[in-house]
Model the fold of this input.
Amino acid sequence: MIFGKFTERAQLVLVEAQKESQYFKHGYIGTEHVLLGVLREGGYAKQLLYSNGVTVEKVRKVIEDYLGFGDIDISVGEMLLNPKTKRLFDDSLIKARIYDHNCINPEHILLALIDDTEGVAYTIFTNLKLNLNLIKNEISNYLYEKRLD
Done:
């Protein structure tokens, strides 16, 4: 599975996404939960989102309004990714390889979230009126600099 290509930071995104899915009782991990995982990880991707006005509280509010709460409990060990989230992680690996990185970081995940126009996370970005091109450029510059290190 692709999870072997996750850095510790990206694994933390996934753990936090699972916690958010459990909080909402959705029974699956969707792109919206992954976005919350990125916000909880604490690295550059989170800082960039926060500097653009995206917070855990705002994202949770949009999810509540858009999807509401479910009634499905998943256990800590269960990781039920919906098809869009599986594709998102495949796309994250492609993004990593573009920058000559062997493993997925939260910044690659955020780039994939931005490019996935069909995911709930993209709906959240639209709802929050983000300048996605600006954010992509900032991430790209950051990842390019990391490649030079």
Summary: The radius of gyration is 14 Å. The mean pLDDT is 92. The chain is about 65% helix and 0% strand. The helical segments are 8-24, 31-41, 44-51, 56-66, 83-98, 106-115, 120-127, 132-148.
